Amino acid sequence: MTDVTQLIQLTRAGVPGARERLYEIIYSELRVIARSMRWVGRPGDTLQATVLVNETFLELERRFPPAPTSTPETRATFYHSVALAMRSILRDHWRSRMSQRGGGGAMVSPLEGVEVADSADDREGRDFFALDEALNRLERVHPRWYHVVLLRHFAGRTEKQTARMLELAESTVRNDWKLARAWLKSELSRGGT
After folding, report:
1. Of 137, 150, 151, nearest to 183 (Cα)?
2. Mind listing the pLDDT tens digit for each residue in 140-162?
3. CA-wise closest residue to 170 among 161, 179, 180
4. pLDDT digit string (tens) for 20-31?
5. Residue 15 DSSP SS3
6. What are the helix (H) ranges across the chain?
7. Could you give the CA distance from residue 2 to residue 24 in angstroms, rounded to a whole number?
8. 186, CA 20 to 30 Å: which among 71, 96, 175, 177?
9. Contact status, residue 90 vs residue 128, Cβ threshold 8 Å
């Protein structure tokens, strides 16, 4: 049995071994998604693809328990939860990294008038937080675009998979993905103001 939707239903029903089989099936897929993320697996960083996937599983257990039985859980809701978990873990990771640098990532000069050069880590952290804030705004302004970005970027779903999960035409997902990326690029270039 390899159907994710069926395994989700069996997991909710408490069938022994269903949750383990579900995680086994999606583990390698999530590793591919994690490896493709810009903020994962950089040399010297503690957040490697395997760590992100393992943390995602723990996060799913901790923060995203099974939905009430009145809410049907499907492949779409599962991958939505995966995307939210990955985004949350990345946010926590960068928050921790930036706070370790002092001042929550703010640049502190040891002497007045002396500039301290940004490290690549500082820029990466600021880039992630800028994107995270822009995604928050996108969710308020264009909720459907936000869900397309969430599934495409943080859950690694294809246009076809995203269309099926959101019950949209593939052409709509393709257009939303294009428009959402342009909107995010514009927001990030303006500094989100």
Report:
1. 137
2. 999 999 999 999 988 888 999 99
3. 161
4. 888 888 787 788
5. coil
6. 4-12, 18-36, 49-63, 75-100, 120-141, 143-149, 159-166, 170-190
7. 10
8. 96
9. yes
